[in-house]
Amino acid sequence: MTETNHYITLDHCIILTVNENNDCIADGRIVIHESTIESLGTPDEVEARGKVYDLKGRIVMPGLISTHTHSPSVLFRGLADDKYLHEWLTEYMWPAEKHLTHELTYAGSRLAYLEYLGNGMTTNVDMWYFSDAVSQAAEESGLRSFLSSAVFAFPSPQSEHSLQDTADYLARCYSRPEAVRKASRVYPCVGPHDIYSTNPPLLKECAQLAKQYQAMIHMHISETQRDNAEAFSLYNMSPTRVAEEAGIFECRTLFAHCICLSEEDMDIFHKYNASVSYNPVTNLKLSEGILPIPKLREKGINVTVGVDGAQSNNSLNLLADIKTGVLIQKVAEMNPCILNAVDAIRMITINGARAVGMEHKIGSLEVGKRADLITIDIDTPAMTPILHKTTENISSHIIYTDTSINDVMVDGEFLMKDKEYCRIDAKEIMREAQKAADYITKKIDKI
Ligand SMILES: [Zn+2]
């Protein structure tokens, strides 16, 4: 292989770097060497190398990072809309999930990862069961995935002992040869589902397991007032305090929803550098409430965004969700200045990278970082006109208008090029997912 084959140049694009200064380069060039950004700047500053792609008419920005999802639940899209959370979960979702198998989970995961890819989400933080099936789908897609198997105090759809499932999954991942593990884009995590479906001894075991592997803990917390009421009734303390007592916060932690955190809870989050995943569409659809983002930011807490699962969202589109999420924050505070488009872009990129501990590798376009990026077409009615090629104007278009994603790259590898999937067969994936959904639908009594 000649040296040329190791290099790619993305030329004449608008580069939204999301670096510390939020720099935007109006006519930019990015040179990628294998998986890494080797140089970035204007064509005057940077010499083109290898195969050159003329991206005039495109924005290039970091790949999107969704920090909370349940991929295979896409098989239940539209199964039970317009319900309260606990009714929805206990009467519809958990009974439906009992019919899942490794094969059905794989079929659903492939569909979810197809949707993530088309919508530019290069990294996802995922929680489900049958982690080997989800892992396989994630690896095949080429996207990054922080994957945990949900841990409950009762049997999961996979087995009687969900903590053991997680321990076994982690052991399998870490027993792979180092070269295989390093090349993998799947990172195993520990996922106690929440406080109300676990208990303090189980949470302690989860924390110990996470410490053993230095794995991240990903869990739901204080999603509704009912979650808080149950924790106070059982333990006389908030869910956050229960998690703290169990040692959960001593690991890297990413918590989904967090709508009903108290000031004291937020102080605990800040003390341990825990991150929050904002899931605006699920929160609105299940009428759970609105995450107090201004307060969290005031406390110095890292706020990220997740699409959550398609059983509650129902689409897996982070850019659509962040628009909803920003707008609802404005009206909640009756203040249009409370969250701007530039900060919103950071929430779906670098903040997500910080949450998973990869801010030195992904989340912004900078020399030395991995080439995880997307390109957005500006030659569309919704993106016309571009008044100024500035950070504010470009961010505004991305957050508030309809975007059309053209290319998706992870580790310097095109996974989608000119809207064509490079690794996977979309039609076959959709066909198999429909078959899996048909099978489950027949099994479910209550629809
Ligand atoms: Zn969730």
Q: Outline, from the CA principal axes?
A: globular
Q: In the CATH hierarchy, what is the architecture of the largest domain at level 2?
A: Alpha-Beta Barrel
What does the largest sheet look like? 9 strands, mixed
Count of the domains? 2
The number of E-state strands comes to: 18
Task: Tell me the radius of gyration.
Answer: 21 Å
N- to C-terminal separation?
56 Å
Mean pLDDT: 95
Proportion of helical residues: 25-40%
CATH class of the largest domain: Alpha Beta
Tell me the CATH superfamily of the largest domain.
Metal-dependent hydrolases
Ligands, deduplicated: zinc ion
Commentary on this structure:
By secondary structure, the chain is of the alpha/beta class. It folds into 2 domains: 3-62 and 364-421, Urease, subunit C, domain 1 (Roll), CATH 2.30.40; 64-355, Alpha-Beta Barrel (TIM Barrel), CATH 3.20.20. Helix content is 38%, strand content 22%. The protein has helices spanning 85-97, 102-118, 131-141, 162-174, 178-183, 200-213, 225-235, 239-245, 263-271, 280-285, 293-298, 318-333, 341-347, 350-355, 391-400, 426-443; strands spanning 7-16, 24-33, 36-41, 51-54, 58-62, 64-69, 121-128, 144-151, 186-188, 191-192, 217-221, 253-257, 275-278, 302-305, 373-377, 405-410, 413-417, 420-421. The strands form 3 sheets. Strands 1, 2, 3, 4, 5, 15, 16, 17 and 18 form a 9-stranded mixed beta sheet that branches. Strands 6, 7, 8, 9 and 10 form a 5-stranded parallel beta sheet that branches. A 4-stranded parallel beta sheet has the order 11-12-13-14. The protein is globular and about 65 Å long. Bound molecules: zinc ion (ZN). Zinc ion (ZN) is lined by residues 68, 70, 220, 256, 308.
